[in-house]
Design brief:
- The protein has six helices and two strands; from the N terminus they run αβααβααα.
- By secondary structure, it is mainly α.
- Strands 1-2 form a two-stranded parallel sheet.
Amino acid sequence: MATASMDEWIGLADASMRKSPFLWIGPNAAGHLKPPGQILSQGNNALWHYTVEMAKEAKSRDVDALGMYNLTLQAASWDGSSYGQRVALVQAMMTGNLLNYTEEFSGCLDASK
């Protein structure tokens, strides 16, 4: 599951003796065009519960979590899963801003240092 993946990445960083910040990025919301056969397993209810549980798991491992569910809940999607360049750009900006404010990582993004 996703917690095993999270543990694997943390283990790799610990084994290399690097002080690496981690950011868990949650999934997008399901768009209204998501095919009916996928709604039960990949619909908004399942995604919301996954997002909440993974945020708890991340916090218990001292990992920052950034949920994308609320950002994409009302965004337009042609297939119910893909949101396009505008949403991707906002996600990238949010991720960069959050990492910039993370104490261990803030020096890595500043080109003047």
